[in-house]
Amino acid sequence: MKVWLKYLIAALLGVACAFILPSGNQTIEEAVSFLTELVIRFGRYMTVPVMFFTAIVAFNRLRDTKLLVKTGIWTGAVIVASSLILTLIGLLSILIVRLPRIPITVENVTDPVSLGLQDLFRALFPYSALETLNNGSFLLASLFFAFLIGCASTSDPVLYRPVTQLCDSLSKLMYNISVIFTEFLSFGMVAILCYWTMQFRGIITSGVYTPMIIMLVVDFVIVVGAIYPFIIRYLCHDPHPYRILYASLCSIITAFFSGDSNLVLLLNMRHGKESIGIRRRINGVVHPLFTIFARGGSALVTTIGFIIIWRSYSSLNIPFLDILWIFFISFGISFLLGGFPVGGAFISLTVLCTLYGRGFETGFLLLKPAAPIICSFATAFDVVTATFGTYIVAVKTKLIEHHGIKHFI
What we know:
Layout: H1 3-20, H2 26-43, H3 47-64, H4 68-96, H5 117-124, H6 139-152, H7 161-206, H8 210-235, H9 242-247, H10 249-258, H11 261-276, H12 280-283, H13 286-293, H14 296-313, H15 320-333, H16 344-356, H17 371-396
């Protein structure tokens, strides 16, 4: 059975469980919440080990074959371009379609929310490099450590051959273990979907956020059904671009209902290797970089969310310069969300409201009840961007062995 089909069946069972279980029972909701947390911890258990050892081998071979700079340029260009495209789509959609206002609520802000840039830099450069392996949220820390080891080991290939061979063996071992984890994670999707549905029922019942949800659905269909396949078709000269979308079905399902970008990384890497045929030296570096920096989906929903908030507070038209400010700030914040694999989109919206000021500092509270669904869409956008983006880099660096769709896992 295909992996995505296992996850889809588990998802349907989770939705069914949410309707079977009595609603409003706090004990049951707490139990499901606890199970969901355990499942997510289980799913992320092997993320850092797999990424770390695979990245060491990948950086080593990319530098040894003089493809490191080319790979970096293509990766950076695709990340920036995808974030620009998604932010622009979000801006245009909310400017073209005027959604109904959201009723103003009175709620006090308990704790201020920030990006915590100082903490991110501390995590990137701890007192010991080995501490980076303990950070399961900010993956850039361990990826940077892997970069140092991988590149330094090319200075004397003979002397450091035992190191590269050990990392190569550990990379393959960790990957094989992670395959088992991703298979069993499909069973855990029942708990994730059950908990997500419990939250979603409350959001959709009110009807306040339904127009926004419909807009996000339409934007997602346009992006994954038209824009990304068009780019693949003409940039990579691929006559069958929708097979990349097919390869990312499992990741999209998991990303949307978990809202956790790090949870999906191993699934993305597995499908990149076994379905699409991306070589390990690209799969082990580019996918993590997209997971960390390619958060254009968060920029898209942040832009839409903030303009909805603005129009809910005021009936005046938004000044053109303010529209540009919203666009570029949302775009810029998206690159700083690497330390927030969960809830990054709502944090971005909170920061944007704070930076804008003018009485909008607490405007994000209007969308707080819908935060789970907002983050779900943002993560789905980001994950599909990672799959398509990594494929583009693999094609442009010629580090891919194309597989037929019948061989997809």
